Amino acid sequence: MKILNRLAACVAMALLASFAINAVAQTPSGDPVKLRIGFQKSSTLIAILKARGTLEKAVAPLNVRIEWSEFASGLPLTEALNADAVDVSADVADTVPVFAQAANANFVYVAQETPSPSAQAVIVHRDAPIHSLADLKGKRIAVTKAAGVHYLLLSALARAKLTPADVKISYLAPADARAAFERNDVDAWFAWDPYVASVELDPGARILIRGDGLASYQRYYLASTPFAQKYPQIVDIVFKQLVAAGVWTKAHPQDAARILAPVWGLDQATVERANSRRTYAVRAVAAKNFGEQQAIADSFYQAKLLPKPVDTASALVWDFASRKAVAANTATSANVAAEGVVKQP
To answer: Where does the Solute-binding protein family 3/N-terminal domain start and stop, copy by copy (predicted)?
Structure first.
């Protein structure tokens, strides 16, 4: 009798769990929930999850169907997030959420990758008379607006006691920036991996400096606040899958390179070199890590690239303990990682 009672209890719990899943992850009509993910070509972990099909498998029990959309850079990606065109944003540079916050975008920080400063660099022509940051004065510079390298540019100019007015800036998407560099239309290109890796061995190019000591380059994953609040289980699964993808990528560099090479249009050796400079260590977002976010916001406002000052501590971060979005300046529990998957340093 006791065995039958325990069996009945187990069946009841399973049914309740099933009802809970259906309640969370189905539309009123019972149709699958759409999870619209926006990404860039350089969104490594999302590309790994997409290629291996692991995220689809993880959300399948919740009756979720994923739709993928590629964007040229991070800024239009977050604009799409604010316009309700995507639900989750793959990794964007630390600068991008600052611009989104200035535009009053309705988003929540879900996760971040630990710093990878050497994954950004300033590329110049090998025979150019540019050997220090001060030599950039008066030079033509290609940079992607609002990308992490845009902050690297501002930091580099500040270190050299220069201002944006002291150089000639062209705001170009990565592919256009590379083309301009190869045509000699610009003297320096502020780029990030895998674009750096794709040209650093070119005999006509050289690395002037990397991002170390200038910009820590933390990449963030974002979600639409309404979507995250409505489907917290999906947010949890996405987070766990990102963590797992980061661990797998670092543990299997050759396998990861084989997946990414055709996606990026690069050879495997170049992909491995690029990935070696990224940590791919995904963690929950903690308010204590927002110090540089505020420095980024202040730098862009001082450069008159933001319409108003931005208080990064007022942004929303995802609290895995309470499964809701909370203000960063009160998100002490955001230091707790999702169900023990990751520990904050």
So the answer is: 34-263
